[in-house]
Amino acid sequence: MVKSSETPPVSLSLDEIFEVLVAPRRRAVLYELHGRSEPMTLTDLAASVDAVEAVATTETNGNETEAATGTNELEVTAANRRSVAVALDHIHLPKLQQAGLVTYDRAEKTVELGRIPRQFERYLRFAAEDDHRTRAIDATV
Q: pLDDT by residue (tens digit) across 7-24?
């Protein structure tokens, strides 16, 4: 696998930037990978994205109890993580790799942030502010 630090940042059009940032899962992936120096496993990334989505869902819908839903929280979490991992593997990581923003080794199931162009980083920072995720971005800039 070519190290992301060896490749120059790609140039993305404004439409391409917004196409990447429109999906909350892709933004969550970028927030999680931002500032990491080592690749992350798909499993760990899916768990992190799932946790972010769970917090957002709880804040939006309120906290449902096991009695109300009839399911065990661990079962739901495991199923959600598998679902998130499949979506990342088949949809979001290939899209991010095509844009030149991540390096995804599908065989090894590892993901690493590529070199982010300054123009893209500016929009990512705005998205992070709206998503209340500025700590993940500001800590590395």
A: 666 789 999 999 999 999
